[in-house]
Amino acid sequence: MSEYTDMAEKLRVRLEDLLQRAEVIEDDLRHPLDADWSEQAVDLADDEALEGVDEVLRAEIQQIRLALLRIENGTYGTCAICGEDIRRERLEARPIATRCIKCAEAA
């Protein structure tokens, strides 16, 4: 794990940020609807947009957790398709990458 300690720390910081943002969104989604029908329509449209953002955040949270698990179990940086090493530059640009450039481009 020592080879990717810095990557793990960056992932943990990003994870914490995403979790905080997701919590704010969830709190906003829990608010009761206004009694005014026109306000309800606006609130529902806003909620729909927030739900979309929340889904994206949750997907990234899951990918980060999986990347941290790969770091922990020693498979981080290994292409899930061909088994070759994923270049450090790619991991720095996309820390959740599971495939090397060659395999990612082939997909």
Structure commentary:
It holds the Pfam family zf-dskA_traR. Keywords: Coiled coil, Metal-binding, Zinc, Zinc-finger. Residues 74-106 form the Zinc finger DksA/TraR C4-type domain. The protein has 107 residues and is an all-alpha fold. It has 2 domains: 2-76; 78-107, no CATH class. It has 4 helices and no strands. The protein has helices at 5-29, 37-73, 88-93, 101-106. Helix 1 runs antiparallel to helix 2 (37-73). The chain is elongated and about 60 Å long. The relative contact order is 0.14. The model has no long low-confidence stretch (mean pLDDT 89).
Task: Provide a concise account of the structure shown.
By secondary structure, the chain is mostly helical. It is built from four helices and no strands. Helix content is 69%, strand content 0%.
Write the layout of secondary structure elements.
Layout: H1 5-29, H2 37-73, H3 88-93, H4 101-106
Helix pairs in contact: 1-2
